[in-house]
Amino acid sequence: MNKKGAGLGIAIIVAIMFFIVGLTSINMITPEVTRTTASAQLNCANASAISDGNKLTCLAIDLVIPYFILIVFSTAGGYITAKFLL
Asked: Are 59 and 66 in contact (CB under 8 A)?
């Protein structure tokens, strides 16, 4: 077996491991995002009662999970792609 094939196999295994750990950790982030946007904290459900700054903060907090998923996909895919190119 050549070195490039072995390195690619290990890269795929590491990328899958990072992907699984990354998506599993979303279960720990989701309750915190929900708790932060609740009525006791930022009150994001009542848009007419909060200021524009709080609305922007609500949007930023709601984007945490999609950005986290994007980072996990990008890192796992980038690791495999780097092994293809090098």
From this structure: no
What does the DSSP assignment read for the chain?
--HHHHHHHHHHHHHHHHHHHHHHTHHHHHHHHHHHTSTTTT-TT-TTTS-HHHHHHHHHHHTHHHHHHHHHHHHHHHHHHHHHH-
What does the pLDDT look like over 38-86, one tens digit per residue?
A: 988 888 988 888 899 999 999 999 999 999 999 999 999 999 898 888 7
pTM of the predicted protein model: 0.78
Q: Residues 66, 72, 74, CA angle at the centre, nearest 5°? A: 100
Structure tokens at 45: 């459900």
